[in-house]
Records
---
Amino acid sequence: MSLILILEQVLNGLQFGVMLFLMAAGLTLVFGVMGLINLAHGALYMVGAFAAAAVAGATGSFLLALVASLAAAAAAGALVEVTVIRRLYDRDHLDQVLATFALILIFSEGTRWVFGSFPLFLDVPEYLSGPVTLPGGIKYPLYRLTIIAIGLVVGAGLFWLIARTRIGIQIRAGEADREMIAALGVDISKLYTLVFALGAALAGLAGALVGAIQSVQVGMGEPVLILAFVVIVIGGIGSIKGALVGALLVGLTDTLGGVFLPLLFALMMEPATATSLGASLASMLIYILMALVLLVRPSGLFGGSA
Amino acid sequence: MTRERLINAALLASLLGVPLLAWQMDEPFVITLATKVAILALAGVGLNIALGLGGLVSLGHAAFFGIGGYAMGILAAHAQNYEPLFTWPFLFEGSNQMPLIWLVAVVASALAALVIGALSLRTSGVYFIMITLAFGQMLYYFAISWSAYGGEDGLSIWVRNEMPGLNTLDPIQFFAIAFAVLAMALWFSARLARSPFGLALSASRQTAERVETVGLTPFKLRLVAFVISGAITGLAGALFADLNRFVSPTMLSWHTSGEIMIFVILGGVGRLYAPLLGAAVYILLEHLLGGISEYWQIFLGLLLLIMVLFAKGGLIGLIAGREVAHD
Amino acid sequence: MTDMPREPVLRTESISKSFGALKASNNVSLTLYPGEIHALIGPNGAGKSTLIKQISGGLTPDAGRIEVLGQDVTALDTVARARLGLGRTFQISSLAMEFTVLQNAVLGALGARGNAFSFFRKVMKDAELLARAEEALKRVGLWQDAGKRTADLSHGQRRQLEVAVALTLKPRLFLMDEPMAGLGASGSKALTGFLDELRQEAPILLVEHDMDAVFALADRISVLVYGEVIATGTADEIRQDPQVRQAYLGDEEEA
């Protein structure tokens, strides 16, 4: 087990974490500002990936594909917010869960209807494919490195948006007190639509970026959605900082655990058992992490009181 | 309230009458559909104890459903392959006897519910939803990576398990088993709702602070409710696996959790017979709409959306009026 | 106070609680003796709710200790304190709204029994629980409404039910958070009369805004301002206390 392998896996974990952050950021914003639990967030991830694959197929441009993923997911998000989601803000969590679960069914089957059941493929463009050599002699795929960079830039942009801009001030005020921002004369329903569309756009972007590594298919958003929930539970609901820390923790734990647990077990038992036991345990690792965080801090690392 | 009772009696009578009629007319497929309704309703009866009585929005009940399924799969697989499950402290070769399988399914899912509940009930609201969902997903991935029992492909059983005195391969007899278990579970949940425990649990849902001030602990009440709820859903899982003679990670997937919840909601939260009506409507829709379009779940989604947004009391609420029964 | 027995039923010993820079309770020492009504008054934001929560067990003080019937309960939770005999009514009614009046009272009786883990017996056919609930409802004059849904009760009736649920516990002391709030003049008068008798059974720590009721009922009054008890005494002593007049009449001088 070389140092290079470890570093490579750390980068893989970072890439995974950054992508989870794009998902979790939207979820946690929507929960923090509007108090809504949105199971359909994964559907928006899927919409972004499909839009990117379709546009890339038609134009051949990856950049246009990314723009399309942002636009399509934001538009789908805004549409859903205006027609369904805004009726749910004052409802209890059970209603929110059911209505957004219904949205998943509609989105998933609708996409299957339009695009069929076969996965689409979105190719990494020429100029981003192939490995680059990093200091220390590590060869690492340029595209994955680009995902990390895009994720970090978007993350920084989000922190800036929330800390420094007018909209950010309104968002923070909305988290603190809905009535107050209404009293300040902010158009709440417009703000909510905007926040929801923003979260959707981030999910769509994540879907498109990942779609180029994996395949683009119906249901692709759901495993990611649940991981994003784990991220939020660990980080604390409503906290962007918590989402970032949680996402990186989950990304690194999952990636490193998947690689190194079987190796670690191989030191103690016969290879076949070690591989299967290691893989089983690795698949549970992030949930065990979540359970541990819960035992110590029921409201997450950066959450207020539960 | 009498109206709701009337609806309940009609529901139970239909569930019994339709397959009996199908039996007379030699339509085994209809009997199998009715069996499926009975078993899925049983899973819903389990969830309804946590959700309807206790107000615990668990999005992870597939975990218990799947554990029940795997209890059946594992015991029966060892029995059919003549590979002992364990040899110490005594030789155990697995089993193809339903009563023993059920016992294992109930105990295993109750234990899982105890652990998951003890962790998740430390939180509430949206955290609870996400955490139950996450633990369910954990077991899903565990089952996928557990190659000893089929991994992603699941486990097939050649012959349906046995019940002393009955021929379980005969559809109507297997239906009778499922129906009897469902009827007992409905009776039990009705008793539970009217018991001291049911009163305290329902109060914990409405006003936990009050329950504490009268000297009772909501956490304990909820945990016990969660365990009972998980055990019943686990029993349904064992029966469901026996119906299909197959168990796979799909039983553990969060879509299954969502579907069990849909049964309860379509029927009407807090109504004892809601899971029965919900499961029946769900299976009917699947069967009827599924015949028209491969994409029938779009219509299920739309129906569910309309129910949530505009008809809060569920179907039983629509028919019986909004008043929830109470003595 | 001279004719009172020495052993207090409730004693807080210099308890303090801060939220960030805000000192919600500052060195609060209070006692409640058998047979008395001790009223706690103070302007809004004086820290009455925080203090009540610490006594009932919802909040743990940062410093100091709380004794109930001579036992240190500082580390005990709400449930344990309730079982020791602390009966509480809430400022914002926290009854189970879907239940009938009788069911709410039975819930209290069930709590008094201390064990809710009975799964088959019909709770509304349990003679012992029903008798206890009936007695409490009769005492507050709600028995004729026992079958009503709690959500359909008037505001005043909910207050009565609050007290009835506390009564089913046969508590050793009461903690009542604004029981008169929102009651009309006649309701307020009726409840005043009831509390007047109740004190013989178990003493009452009464948080109340209705000053007529407080001065009519209280054996002693403590005044809480900015988390601090600035005075404790009989109604007359409090009326004449310069610090209290200052706090209530709003002089700007430092106290």
Note: The first helix of chain A runs from residue 3 to 34.
---
Amino acid sequence: MTVTSSTKDAEKLRFTIETEFSATPERVWQLWADPRQLERWWGPPGYPATFHRHEFTVGGESRYYMSSPEGDRSHAWFRFVTLDEPHHIELDDGFSREDGEPVDPHDHARIIVTIESAGPVTRMTTVSQFRDLTQMEQLVGMGMQEGMAAAMGQIDAILADG
Amino acid sequence: MTRVAVRDEHVGRGCADSIRAVTYNQMVVQMGNDDATDRIFHALADATRRDIVTRVMQRPLSVSALAAGYAMSFAAVQKHVAALERADLVTKRRQGREQMVRGNPEAVRRAARLLDEYEAIWRGRIDRMHDIINDDDEGESQ
């Protein structure tokens, strides 16, 4: 198991997940800082993320979209609120219109990432804070392929058995 | 964030056109009618109101007991409670001289279901992050 702990607070609309990497904090930082690496993990299989703007500086913003197998694009944005290399990242994540620009710059979730040495490993803790249920429903709805891909894999396996 | 194939016409909190442009999954978005949904979102968008919900989920409290916990007037707290009541997040019932406020666990359960889905998304991301780091170890065998 790669995830060491996760906690959900339904009343505060907050989710925390923790993992440990066999790598330095500097290496883990690069997973966020380098848009080409970020693209390899942000979107679920079959729904790749493309970051066509990634200003990894305080006040900098990113623009990205995710492509469905049918070719539909779903646009979103980041804004970096705090960056303390290689230990701390705070960013806002929100939805964009078709032109890539934010639907509402004030409507965003906040993601807080802490990267710290823990003996031989590096611990990364990610806290997501949602503003309200609509926002959470949108984010979850857009990331649902994670669950759907697993379901499709099971169907494939059943068909293969038959 | 990715779109799914099923289009959904639910609209939260105005900006109808832009939000309609976002497609989300009907399996996840099981909301009631739009008015009721709007009231829930409005109610939970405020930190004091979220705090009130948290407190009355644990045990019923009178409006005056709630008001004692905040640096604001009794009337202001009563207003927050009224907004939560309109959204069905809490119920208020007179009990003797007191108005008792109780939480409605259904709204919190809905948030909990969404957090479960969100957790699956992040577990996938973390697995892929590990794969990327493992890839450099293989590539670097120097």
Note: Chain A touches chain B through 57 residues (CB under 8 Å).
